[in-house]
Amino acid sequence: MIDWQQIDTVLLDMDGTLLDLAFDNFFWQVYVPQHYARLNSLSEPEALALLADWIGRHQGTLNWYCMDFWSDELGLNIAALKRQVAERIGYRPGAEAFLAALQASGRRVVMVTNAHPDALSLKVERTGIDRYFDALVSSHQYRAAKEEQPFWERLSEAHPFTPERTLLVDDSLPVLGSAQRYGIGHLWSILHPDSSVPARPHTRPFPAIDQFDTVQPR
Fold first, then answer.
1. What's the CATH code, domain 4-20+90-214?
2. What residue spans carry the region label Disordered (predicted)?
């Protein structure tokens, strides 16, 4: 269980933690390859294989999360394509109630996301998730992804927090590892970030949340 008495600040990821990662996985694994295949006279499997290799080379960097970068690289309007399927954006089960309980607890709550600011704005527009936060931080503001130490250094300058009394919940193991190196004291992962596929087995080095109703703040 989360030791809430030891936590003053809560840092929360967005995609795969609070919002269902099924939207993003559908977008990048199905919708973008469909459009890229059509644009370049490829089959969809050819486009998917090409994009998976291309995107994988940038994994963990700011480019990987940058809509402007991929619009330029792929010759597609990524922001416009996201709007076309925005009805798929939604909360993970129990996430909104968890956010409301956090807000009522009086703790400072900050969103920390690698999402591009335009993607963040779209998801705020669709969900109203911003109402639960004291601040929304995109790694693009700091020109460093959460996997990189400069992100945490710049975050602590802009939104000071005591690392050992801070909780981070994130579905990404590399991000949690980066936060651990920075000294954040309470680190939790997510077992089921994408509702369209089975939950991940808990074989990870960090404790993991299955249902938010089991970790309600006190």
1. 3.40.50.1000
2. 199-218
